[in-house]
Amino acid sequence: MPQAEQAIPDREILADMLLSQKQMTDLYNLAAGKCTLETLQSDMLDILREEHTIRAKLYSEMTKRGFVNPAPAGQAEIDAVRAGFSDAESDF
Q1: Nearest to residue 10, comparing CAs of 71, 58, 69?
Q2: Taking residues 24-29, what's their average pLDDT?
Q3: In angstroms, what CA-CA distances link 7 with 14, 18, 59?
Q4: Backbone angles phi, psi at 32, to 5 degrees
């Protein structure tokens, strides 16, 4: 008698989809940055925006289902990030 297949939980499916979207946005961003033709770069940027929209919808769905619980950043974390950007800006 064949063993019943175990369904993959929605949380794992959505997490895998989110990771895939993050990787796709990285690749499209890289591709857009390397384009030498303006029309091709424009197309890549359009696709990149679409991929970001898909990623945002996936994250929203995961939040709605309680799979992720984004915590607000504390003031110390905000200050640290701000300082990092200020340091990077001064390097230019």
Answers
A1: 58
A2: 96
A3: 14, 19, 22
A4: -60, -40
